Amino acid sequence: MGEISQISLIRPNLNPYLEKYALRTRLIRERPSADLGLVVVIPACNEPHIEDALSSLYNCTPPDCATEVIVVVNASESAPQEVVDANARTAETCRYWKGIHDSPAFRIHLIEEPALSRRKAGVGIARKIGMDEAVRRLDDVGNPEGIIACFDADSTCAPDYLQALCTHFRKHKKTPGCDIRFAHPTFGGDYDAKNYLAISYYELHLRYYNQAIRAAGFPNAFHTVGSSMAVRASAYAKQGGMNTRKAGEDFYFLHKIIALGGFTSLHTTTVYPSPRPSDRVPFGTGKAVADYLQDDTKGFYTYNLQAFKYLHTFFKHIPEFYITAPKPEHLGGDLPYIVIDFLSAYFFEERIAEIRANSRGYNSFEKRFYRWFNAFMILKFVHFVRDNAHPNVRVERAAMDFLRAAGVSDISEIRSVSGLLGRFRKLDEAPPAKQLRFSSSR
């Protein structure tokens, strides 16, 4: 069927999100399968092994709906020639794959963005272009509740990945999105031992931080890893879509989705992100690994556990703030001055008064409170504590301190960073009733 006939079969998009926020008009002309339910979006810039990601997805057990993979091969207008050449090879690989593997049940689409603005070029805008087009594809078949999954060009996944995603969203009918279990490779022959140690440290840092804010009582403690997240198209559109940040786009995007309520975690499958070093972004996995490889003599550091214990103490007083709105300094000396100083800098009393005035009851107050004191505020708080009271400590020490503070038994059996990471991976998969909380606040 020719391109003109294909286009004529696609109805005009009436989605308000696409009308207002999409960066591009229609980029894929091929008509989607009527049962399209899952679109996987992969940004790719200077990725020499895109076929590994495509093979991993193609070899998955087929789900009960059609799947599409959108690869957004992108580069800045000022990209060096080696990146331009690498992207040309990636695009050719995608075209070859499409010719060999494309079918109504599993389609591969290529979007090329070779000259993005230097000011905006990066993973955020690449994800947005692909995810916007995913909304359009699902809108074409009248499926606003379809799934958009984020993946990376250097990641692979378990064989049940596609099936598990569809099952999860069908089971949790009201969830706007989910984080997905991930595990960086920590041994093998693709990288040297120091590289695997670096990624073990970094993943331990991620899991320690998530467990610590959860134990402090923060209700929205989820992982925000770009290669390991999925959302409904309707939730994506409702929250204004992906941002165009060069780094940290996953953190900022997912916490907008989490704010909708009902966010979930998918633990029945696994994504395997790459442990490779990178200098393309100012922070994140690749940068952390690269920094460690450049100088491993100082160890790998993370936030002091005391910052999260302070949070636990603070969060315990939320009911009091609702009932009588006491000044922080009047809480019987329970709140340390470092907490009071931080709250004062953000006009805490005024914000609490505003939240109380707009709350119908305690549940409403609590939701509004955490909408203000959200993941961004927590990050600001731990940075404030780090800079003014408790400097960072080695991640293995912080992780062990956490296990002791949370009353975990048998920690004497942990004799390596690998063993410590394994313990935290299991903690992340615990059901809500068995999740850890600090046994004491001070």
Description:
This protein has 18 helices and ten strands. The protein has helices spanning 3-9, 16-21, 50-58, 81-101, 123-140, 161-171, 193-215, 233-238, 249-258, 285-294, 305-316, 318-323, 337-345, 348-357, 362-372, 375-388, 395-405, 417-428; strands at 36-44, 66-76, 106-116, 147-150, 156-157, 177-182, 229-232, 264-272, 301-302, 393-394. Helix 7 crosses helix 18 (417-428) and helix 14 packs across helix 15 (362-372). The longest helix is centred in the middle third of the chain and has 23 residues, at 193-215.
Descriptors for this entry?
single chain, 442 residues, alpha/beta, Spore Coat Polysaccharide Biosynthesis Protein SpsA, Chain A, eight-stranded mixed sheet, 10 strands, globular
Dominant shape: globular
- Kindly report the CATH topology of the domain at 34-193 and 222-279: Spore Coat Polysaccharide Biosynthesis Protein SpsA, Chain A
Give the H and E element order.
HHEHEHEHEEHEHEHHEHEHHHHHHEHH
- The CATH homologous superfamily of the domain at 34-193 and 222-279 is termed Spore Coat Polysaccharide Biosynthesis Protein SpsA, Chain A
Number of strands: 10
| Main sheet overview | 8 strands, mixed
Overall mean pLDDT stands at 92
End-to-end Cα distance: 70 Å
Note the total helix count.
18
CATH architecture label name of the domain at 34-193 and 222-279: Alpha-Beta Complex
Low-confidence spans? 1-5
In terms of topology, how is this protein built?
Blueprint: H1 3-9, H2 16-21, E1 36-44, H3 50-58, E2 66-76, H4 81-101, E3 106-116, H5 123-140, E4 147-150, E5 156-157, H6 161-171, E6 177-182, H7 193-215, E7 229-232, H8 233-238, H9 249-258, E8 264-272, H10 285-294, E9 301-302, H11 305-316, H12 318-323, H13 337-345, H14 348-357, H15 362-372, H16 375-388, E10 393-394, H17 395-405, H18 417-428
Parallel strand pairs: 1-2, 1-4, 2-3, 6-8
Antiparallel strand pairs: 4-7, 5-8, 6-7, 9-10
Helix pairs in contact: 3-4, 7-10, 7-17, 7-18, 14-15
